[in-house]
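Narrative summary of target 7.
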Amino acid sequence: MKLNYDCVRDIMLTIENQLEFGDEWTINKLHTLLSDYAEDELHYTCLKLYEGGYLNAMLISTLGFASPMIARVQDLTFKGHEFIETIRPKPIYNKAKSKIASTVGSASLEILSSVASSIATKMLGIN
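Modeled conformation, tokenized:
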């Protein structure tokens, strides 16, 4: 499965904006808020965000599945907050995504963040 940058951004912004401190969401709850994405895509993306250190979550092992499953989404990590700050502005995010797509086709979330930071820096006139 391919990691969808739009899904990543939407999940992280939704968690930041709507998940109260101390609360937890199931993937089903997240799906009610982000119904444009399939539950499987939300689950996969949350799992990858957890593995990358961007998301705190409770995982469980389930018979019949090779990977652990997300039982609950708990919060963004500090690294997750730092990442979302670089891609929060939609114009910067869109430029970064477009630049990556036209230049290399795909890139890691760290590269997306770096490209977005570079674009923001240029927009601010900081060298």
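The chain has a mean pLDDT of 88.
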